[in-house]
Amino acid sequence: MSKVRVATIWLDGCSGCHMSFLDMDERLVEIAEKIDVVYSPYVDTKEFPGDVDLTIVEGALSTDHDITMIKKIRKNSKKIMALGDCAITGNVSAMKNLSGSEAVLQRGYFELADENKLGRVPSEVVPKLLDTVHPLHEIVPIDFYVPGCPTPADAIYKAITDILEGKEPDTKELTRFGK
Amino acid sequence: MIREKARVKTFKINGTDVTGKSNQTILEVANDHEIKIPTLCYMKGLSCVGACRMCLVEIKGSHKLIPACTGKIKEGMEVETETESLKKHRKFILSMIFAERNHVCSVCVSNGHCELQDMSVELDMKHSSVPYIYPKFEVDASHERFVYDPNRCIVCTRCVRVCNEVEGAHALDIIDRGINSKIIHDMDEPWALSESCTSCGKCVQVCPTGTLTEKGVSSAEMVKKKSLIIDLLEARENRDRK
Lengths: 179, 242
Description:
The complex is a heterodimer of chains A (179) and B (242).
Chain A: E1 4-10, H1 16-22, H2 27-32, E2 35-39, E3 52-58, E4 61-63, H3 64-76, E5 77-83, H4 85-89, H5 101-111, E6 129-134, E7 144-146, H6 153-164
Parallel strand pairs in A: 1-2, 1-3, 3-5, 5-7
Antiparallel strand pairs in A: 4-6
Chain B: E1 8-13, E2 16-21, H1 26-32, E3 56-59, E4 65-67, E5 78-80, H2 84-100, H3 115-122, E6 146-148, H4 158-167, E7 172-175, E8 182-185, H5 202-206, E9 212-214, H6 228-241
């Protein structure tokens, strides 16, 4: 039997959910026997591949690049799992929406910066911030939601094994918003 | 306390025969028979206002959904509390409650001790079905012992009711209507300047979320004494009886 092609991506989040993924410890070996990680911060693929069975997305959508990526992910993936509160609710990433991008950039690059040699906000290479941070499902349809901040390893394990068994992931007992 | 004369009424909840006194609500009778109906604004000991709409139920022969907490019982009525349509409505209403304010569970003082958060698990609401609005509210930390963060408020009005009905101060009330409604102190003044607030803290203890909290607590540290109101009311009743 061919392995299930799984991608993971870290958008506007703290990578805590990806850390939690690694916290599955020895269960990673068990999962690795069933899946191929075809794109992820854990591997060195540069381009998001086609024909992915499941993409696990951490983080909210905060930049024009995030929007491009999530649309590409939707096009190339059979199923998408929104992992963690940022992907599902916007969470801390979306707190920016209360003050706007300008206020956040001002605070980060001037008020709190010890050093800013450019003397301005960088505009090259870095993606452009959106006016409003969005949870994934506000931009593309999402198949599975696994909340948590970060989502506990037990819940990630349960969700992945449920999906591999063709079931709707049931993580109610293991995680919730803010867990 | 003067007890009203009440007749016993028999009716059905989810197909099971139940009995209640004529002055009871559907929710009270359901609770007496260990039938669980989800609630957020309801609190035993306080008046019922039907603010949160979590306890909506169906009554055979009526096309309207009614809140069980304010719905009076009638002889022979047939109540349904767990139909697929009700579950869908409750989830949608819960989505609207989440989307109306800024509920960031992970950094909230009430994380892990929040009735709104618990409700998302109970109703299996995994994401909001309406877009988040992100309204901006200033936090009122003027009081020396308490903090008021309207960003986390679900306008259940438990605080308003406990202040009026149990403490007797009526220092809290609601300003504006609908989605703009907001809890205020006196005539919308900073908490510290409220002349009618007695600083008793009952509002803090009954608040289901991290809206009204004690000062100095950090993320997930705010645990409320929910039994306070019932204990207080029972103590008063026992005193009056002596």
